[in-house]
Design a protein that fits this description.
heterotrimer; A mainly alpha; B alpha+beta; C mainly alpha; B: OB fold (Dihydrolipoamide Acetyltransferase, E2P); 2 domains; six-stranded mixed β-sheet; five-stranded antiparallel β-sheet; C: mainly alpha; MetI-like fold; globular
Chain lengths: ~300, ~400, ~270
């Protein structure tokens, strides 16, 4: 038996192997080709088209032309900034509410549900299967003016307070900011609960015991151990809630009045009713840029860049 | 460099010629030649990241060598994909197919080769590893030891020319690992095929293998029988990685006779010239090594009773710990501090407690000499049980 | 007094349970309302106030013009966009999970962006493209739009599953004489299947329930969500609630049956 540790490099292995290596290198590109082509044509190209549309002027009758008319952006912002601010405010409120409401449920399913865990998960996901428009319409019934919810809130003087705060109006809930935020919260709550649950479920429950063993009271255990460890879920959940909520126009349309219109409503009506494509495109771009900027800052700040 | 090893029987052997593997700038395996005779139990021993697993994977065909060739039974298989080599692997963590039951896991290789009636063979193989009644279980329902046996059965049923084992016992607890060591050794003797076993556990390698290759940083440091490696290590890495060694830096006084004469601290030591792997030149330094269990310990008051002709070092006991079969001492001396000594607990001298002045003495024939121009600490603090960094990278 | 403090302590200890169950009630409440109101007999065109019990809508679920037609259109679109998105998305997921290649991170961003963008932006931009190209809106534009936004979700679901798969399993298969094709069919695909199924189910649900993107790209074609949207303006037939309730029931039954089946298989 022979052994040499310092051996001159042997000649490269034969050509067949190298050919197969080269062919293997192309495999990922073949796998990507159809899907990426699809996204380039139907996702990226439309954005480019939209960018050019936002810089066009003209009318439906005469046709639109690219005139590098940046003023559309300025005009759109000056005219619709209240809707922009309202969208962000509603979405942020709904996101916060989702977090407050969703966390206990996710925690309950992850740590306290025992053998009921599966049933609870089914109950969280199952509502998804009824069209969300139908469920949103159900809130019209729940929050209707003469309904039990409004009557109960009225007799508890809650509505008097909310009226004073300006989130409800004239002792009714429908067609007020409260109804829209409630609808947004309801619609996006599962998007908060699922990532929260996923990250809570990964936490070793012995960590709670260890923290307790090291003199942490239950509240401290939560603050110092559970919550920090669930941060990836919190970040993912807030993003999954905030982004679609900002662009949503269904809740404002179905549960609100003209005073609760969000930016989504404006884009939709500019595009589908007014047929002012440049303005709709410019508004879309402003919304997209604003959201991407906010999301980037948020991800940086929360220090969980690897969730993407 | 030529090393003697157990003579091989005739038949399938494995020959690596100038084989190497680089990933970008990183060289996982430096060009190496290695031949494993048919029917032998060969171990590749080394710490994590030393290139042992990469070497194994190149034999299996799971990794393409950067240079060099792999020969099985004299045939060059370097360009063959894994599924065309009559080599099977027992993977680290077993890699049992989670979606198939035990029976189908074991039958997998036969079915891929188009064998229709697998029932008899699978049954026999499951009996060999004593898992006949668990055939319809899924892998996750089995214990670690059972999964390990399934992995062995799944590979052996194909009657490979060579069986490769990649840290096959790494996930088992100590007791089970001992049992499986004997079990694997029994199976190897029974089926008589070549086993190439990768491990970081020096005890495992020494218990099971006929020949051990110690690898370090992509190179084979030394190759030989377990006794050979243990008694005559050729580098500080091998001396420290296999068991424990006391290494003392000494000045060479005389190299003319059969024995080399040296001085360490205030004492003179002798070393048989045949047991010195470095070239000794008068006036230069050499590392003198001695295994702790070869040393006898005598209280300084009885120094006169130590026979002439033995190497002797005086010192003071710094620490002692009782291990049951033996007591381990750490002794500080002018020749070197922290020398370790293992004494059988046969007739314990009650004066041998920390602080006691003692004489360490041993038969010079057990001494080995190493080149002083290497790290005296090499191989002492290698991390164990960290999986090879390279093996997930594809 | 001690009884009271014991009760208070139990309450405090179970605060999270109580809060969680309240949230669950908030989530379920609309479904309960939808179900109850599927048995209503409203006076006017809108089904928002309870009048009296009736099973009329249940005995004649297709009694309203266009309702069942829109439902079957939605099912067809959901089916085809699921197939399209699953095939395209699975291929991308395998490439991302298994290979290192140039432009890997740009591909990652291209997958991530559609999910990080409000639907209305994607909807408007795709509609702009169709308008500019002079493509008439209808079944095909809806299908294209749905495949586009479902794609990213499939990639995410499948990629997660493939990434968590031990690469040694495929190596073991090759070591046991499986050719690359056999390895893929016998090992990779079965193990990745739960991820692919999850991605497909998600696509189906997303496509079936989508309104915003459909609204921009449908022209005069009416899917089920668009029908409901129109009904919200014109008048809501009780049949909408019947269909909503039936979908909910079917989904719950499927999930429960699946779990029962899984449990029985585990036991045997």
């Amino acid at each position: 038996m022979t052994l040499a540790t310092d051996h001159p490099p042997a000649p490269p292995v034969d050509g067949a192997l190298h050919r197969s290596v080269r062919r293997k290198k192309l495999v990922p590109y073949w796998l990507l080709l159809p899907g990426i082509l699809w996204l380039l044509v139907f996702f990226a190209a439309p954005l480019v088209y939209q960018a050019s549309t936002s810089l066009q002027t003209g009318s439906l009758e005469e046709g639109f032309k690219v005139t590098w008319h940046f003023a559309t952006y300025a005009d759109a912002l000056t005219e619709y900034y209240p809707q922009f601010l309202r969208s962000v405010a509603y979405a942020a409120t709904a996101t916060a509410l989702c977090l407050v409401l969703g966390y206990p449920l996710a925690y309950l399913i992850a740590f306290r549900a025992g053998r009921w865990r599966h049933l609870l998960m089914v109950l969280v996901i199952a509502p998804f299967f009824t069209s969300f428009l139908i469920r949103t319409l159900a809130w019209k019934t729940i929050l209707s003016d003469g309904g039990p919810v409004v009557r109960a809130l009225g007799s508890l003087h809650v509505l008097a307070v909310t009226d004073a705060l300006g989130v409800t109006e004239g002792h009714r809930v429908l067609a007020t900011p409260l109804a829209v935020v409630c609808g947004l919260t309801y619609n996006f709550l599962p998007f908060m609960i699922l990532p929260l649950y996923t990250s809570l479920e990964r936490i070793d429950s012995r960590l709670h015991e260890a923290a307790g063993d090291l003199y942490a009271r239950p509240a401290t255990v939560f603050r110092k151990v559970t919550f920090p460890l669930s941060m990836p879920g919190v970040v993912a959940g807030t993003l999954l809630t905030f982004i679609p909520a900002t662009g949503d126009y269904i809740n404002a349309e179905l549960l609100g009045s003209t005073d609760q219109k969000m930016i989504g409503n404006v884009i939709q009506s500019q595009f589908l009713r007014v047929l002012d494509y440049p303005t709709a495109a410019a508004l879309s771009f402003i919304l997209m840029a604003a959201i991407l900027a906010m999301v980037t800052v948020y991800i940086r700040k929360s220090g969980t860049e690897d969730i993407v | 460099m030529t090393a003697t090893a157990t003579p091989g029987t005739s038949g399938t052997d494995v020959r690596l010629a100038g084989i190497s593997k680089t990933y970008g700038d990183f060289t996982a395996v430096h060009p190496l030649d290695l031949s494993v005779p048919a029917g032998s139990f060969f171990a590749l021993l080394g710490a994590s990241g030393c290139g042992k697993t990469t070497t194994l994977r190149m034999i299996a065909g799971l990794e393409e060598p950067t240079t060099g060739t792999v020969e099985l039974a004299g045939r060059d298989v370097t360009a063959l994909p894994p599924y065309k080599r009559s080599v099977n692997t027992v993977f680290q963590n077993y890699a049992l197919f989670p979606h198939l039951d035990i029976y189908e896991n074991v039958a997998f290789g036969l079915r891929r080769r188009g064998i229709k009636s697998v029932k008899k063979q699978v049954g026999e193989m499951l009996d060999l590893v004593q898992l006949g009644d668990l055939a319809r279980r899924r892998p996750h329902q089995l214990s670690g030891g059972q999964q390990q046996r399934v992995a062995v059965a799944r590979a052996l049923i194909n009657h490979p020319d060579v069986l490769l084992l990649d840290e096959p016992l790494g996930a088992l607890d100590l007791k089970l690992r001992r049992e499986m060591q004997l079990e694997l050794k029994r199976i190897q003797t029974e089926v008589g095929i070549t086993f190439i076993h990768v491990t970081h556990d020096q005890e495992e390698a020494m218990t099971m293998a006929d020949t051990v290759a110690v690898m370090n940083a992509g190179r084979v440091e030394q190759l030989g029988t377990p006794t050979d490696l243990y008694e005559t290590p050729r580098s500080t890495f091998v001396a420290n990685f296999l068991g424990t060694s006391n290494l003392i830096t000494a000045d060479v006084l005389d190299t003319t006779g059969d024995d080399i004469l040296l001085r360490a601290g205030d004492t003179k030591l002798t070393l048989p010239a045949t047991r010195c792997t470095a070239t000794a030149r008068t006036g230069e330094k050499l590392l003198v090594g001695i295994r702790p269990e070869k040393i006898s310990l005598t209280h300084a008051d009885d120094a006169g009773t130590v026979a002439d002709g033995r190497n002797r070092v005086t010192g003071r006991i710094a620490q002692s710990s009782f291990i049951g079969v033996s007591t381990q001492y750490l002794v500080d001396s002018p020749a070197g501090s922290g020398l370790s000594v293992y004494e059988q607990n046969v007739e314990r001298d009650s004066r041998l407690v920390p602080g006691a002045e003692v004489v360490l003495h041993w038969n010079p024939a057990h001494t080995f000499g190493l080149d002083a121009a290497q790290n005296i600490e090499a191989g002492t603090d290698v991390l164990e049980a960290v999986p090879d960094a390279r093996e997930a990278g594809t | 007094m001690t009884a009271f403090s014991a009760l208070a302590r139990r309450l405090r200890r179970n605060l999270v349970v109580i809060a969680g169950l309240l949230t669950l009630a908030f989530l379920i409440l609309p479904n309960v309302v939808v179900t109850v109101f599927s048995f209503n007999k409203p006076n006017g065109r809108f089904n928002y106030d309870w009048q009296r019990f009736s099973t009329d809508a249940w005995t004649d679920p297709c009694g309203v013009a266009d309702l069942c037609g829109s439902l079957s259109l939605s099912l067809r679109i959901a089916l085809w966009s699921t197939i399209g998105a699953t095939v395209l998305g699975t291929l991308i997921a395998f490439a991302l999970a298994r290979y290192r290649f140039r432009a890997r991170s740009s591909v990652g961003s291209l997958i991530f962006l559609p999910m990080a963008m409000p639907e209305v932006v994607m909807a408007a931009s795709l509609a702009t493209l169709f308008l500019n190209m002079g493509i008439s809106f209808g079944f095909w534009t809806i299908l294209i739009a749905h495949i586009t936004f479902c794609l990213s979700f499939v990639v995410t679901a499948v990629k997660a599953r493939v990434m968590s798969m031990d690469p040694r399993l495929e190596q073991a298969a090759q070591d046991l004489y499986a050719t690359p094709l056999q390895t893929f069919l016998k090992v990779t695909l079965p193990i990745a299947a739960p991820g692919i199924v999850a991605g497909a189910l998600l696509s189906f649900a997303l496509s079936f329930d989508d309104f915003i993107i459909t609204n921009f790209n449908a022209g005069s074609t009416v899917t089920f969500p668009m029908y409901v949207w129109g009904a919200a303006q014109r008048g809501t037939p009780v049949q909408i609630n019947v269909i909503g309730t039936a979908m909910f029931a079917v989904a719950v039954l499927c999930v429960l049956a699946g779990q029962l089946l899984g449990r029985r298989r585990k036991r045997s």
